[in-house]
Amino acid sequence: MLKGIIGKKSKKVKNTVEAGAVKNFAFSIGDPSPLYIDEVTGKKSRYKRRIAPPTFPFTLDYGVIPELHLPTKGLIHGEQSFHYYRPLFVGEEIFCHFEIKDYYEKFGNNGSMGFLVTKRYGEDLNRDLIYTDEQILILNEVVRKGLIL
Amino acid sequence: MSTISNLEKGETLGSIQLDPVHRLDLIKYAGASGDFNPIHTIDEEAKKAGLPQIIAHGMWTMGNLAKIFSPYMNEGFIQDYSIRFRGMVFVGDVITLKATLTERESDNMIFDVSAVNQNKVEVLKGQIIFKTDHKFII
């Protein structure tokens, strides 16, 4: 089951950090900061271009791990973290993939809960890391029953 | 021009009170993020999942919270942003976002960040490390 897929990785997928997507995203979180959406402000900035809001990478395509069959319902997002080596620039092309870092179960008041830890990677075209992010998804017993194949 | 580097330990960078959460906020976020899990937008689906009503995407609140730092992103960048989702955010909730400087280690400014609802419940809590180092500029 889930324990067996620890360590599995997806194939890298090329993504473009599209200006329009960044702009829509910035507005959707109520943060239309000029450094994210305005070309002139970006050019005048220390980065010489626009940057993406820190949680934007959550929306990119990280490919698939064929053995991972998660339901679309009933998952709880428990924790989320991002680590940046530098800001993500608008317009750049990056390679994205993800990895199953861990899976463990705990017993609590609501029965046993499963914790799935995934790590995602964003690399520039030279394969240098721009950011990583880690996510902990919580799966209750009902969800896990649906995963038994 | 505002500056972040003058901030003293214990000082609050910002406290932003959002407008009451509107269903349209969540529909827009679903579209912009590609997260179409229906518990965030469709009442019947939320109820089927055992929720009283639709709930905000955790990432919507996390995305909002970072905007306290947006005016300072030309002085540095968010190097680390970690969050624990502790409570649900419902339509109509009034969320207040906060960031307080707790520590400084050379170029790193460490902030406690949180999102609190109208009942003073911390729905989201974590840490941001803002890096004011300039050497990464390309």
TrEMBL record, chain A:
CDD domains: R_hydratase_like. Pfam families: FAS1_DH_region (PF13452). Residues 6-124 form the FAS1-like dehydratase domain. SUPFAM superfamilies: Thioesterase/thiol ester dehydrase-isomerase. This is MaoC family dehydratase. The lineage of its organism: Bacteria, Bacillati, Bacillota, Bacilli, Bacillales.
UniProtKB/TrEMBL annotation, chain B:
GO terms for biological process: fatty acid biosynthetic process. Residues 13-114 form the MaoC-like domain. InterPro entries: Fatty_acid_synthase (IPR003965), HotDog_dom_sf (IPR029069), MaoC-like_dom (IPR002539). One of its GO terms (cellular component) is fatty acid synthase complex. One of its GO terms (molecular function) is fatty acid synthase activity. Gene3D superfamilies: Hotdog Thioesterase (3.10.129.10). This is Dehydratase. It comes from Psychrobacillus soli. The lineage of its organism: Bacteria, Bacillati, Bacillota, Bacilli, Bacillales.
